[in-house]
Design brief:
83 residues; mainly alpha; two-stranded parallel ribbon; 3 helices; globular; THDP-binding
């Protein structure tokens, strides 16, 4: 049944979000925790913010940490880079 399947997927998504949030709670003494940093950025985003990214490990983390405030608010050149 579709409803049961959707509930299973939602439960998995919720568990993933909890895990990410817990990961962000760890702040090392000398190194930076990218999840923690990006959680702080996410809370600071204004409703009219655009997120512009350009590859690297932080972008990979940002992709599952930052929440754009609307459609077309995440600008990423993708695998081909920018001209």
């Amino acid at each position: 049944e579709i409803t049961e399947w959707r509930n299973i997927l939602q439960a998995r998504e919720d568990a993933k979000e909890v895990s990410i949030a817990q990961n962000g709670n760890h702040v090392p003494d000398k190194l930076m925790n990218p999840v923690h940093l990006l959680q702080k950025v996410n809370t600071a985003l204004a409703d009219d913010s655009y997120i512009v990214v350009d590859g690297g490990d932080f972008v990979g983390t940002a992709a599952y940490t930052l929440r754009p405030k609307g459609p077309a608010r995440w600008l990423d050149p993708g695998a081909f880079g920018m001209p």
